[in-house]
Write a structure and sequence with these properties.
The chain is an alpha+beta fold. The chain has one domain (39-154): Jelly Rolls (Sandwich). Helix content is 18%, strand content 49%. A 4-stranded antiparallel β-sheet has the order 1-8-3-6. A 4-stranded antiparallel β-sheet has the order 2-7-4-5, with no helix packed on it. A hairpin with a 6-residue loop joins strand 4 and strand 5. The chain is flat, with a radius of gyration of 25 Å.
């Protein structure tokens, strides 16, 4: 009888000892985490065929936007054949030439008129614009929401 109790007790003590020395992957919140959270940035930019132009994203003066994720969801259709909608992000740093980033979301398996993409990225931008494009036949319908997330960096530098 005592042997039956010793084995489970030993196993329990062993697991408790291992848990004490190998804690779960818990991350502490640091000052850097708090600063990034306070500088968090998210904007949704509508893109559609009725407004076939670049839409500027408002970035506060003295800040630089660091884009970490671009999420694209929407629909496009054509009376011809195939259409591939494309979302373009145009960014600049200082007064340099624009950097162009192309996103061609894949077609949904269940509905060929729907397109979705969620892409992690790193884009640095003092200015940022979002615009539509397409490949294939001219779409009769094209509507997308582009959700841009990241954080803002203060360009003035750390306090002296």
């Amino acid at each position: 009888m005592k042997t039956n109790r010793v084995i489970p007790t030993t196993i329990l003590v062993l697991f408790c000892t291992l848990a004490a020395f190998l804690p779960s992957n818990v991350q502490a919140q640091t000052n850097a985490d708090i600063n990034l959270a306070s500088a968090a940035f998210e904007v949704t930019v509508p893109v559609n065929i009725n407004h076939f132009a670049f839409t500027p994203v408002s970035i506060p003066s003295g800040k630089r936007l660091v884009v970490q994720n671009v999420n694209i969801s929407g629909a496009a259709a054509t009376t011809g054949g195939y259409v591939q909608p494309i979302v373009i992000l145009s960014s600049t740093i200082n007064s340099a030439a624009a950097n162009i980033h192309y996103y061609a979301p894949p077609r949904s398996v269940t509905d060929p008129t729907q397109f979705y993409e969620d892409q992690q990225t790193t884009i640095y931008a003092d200015t940022l614009e979002v615009g539509p494009a397409f490949a294939g036949y001219t779409p009769t319908f094209l509507v997308f929401n582009v959700v841009i997330t990241g954080y803002l960096v203060d360009l003035s530098g750390p306090p002296s």
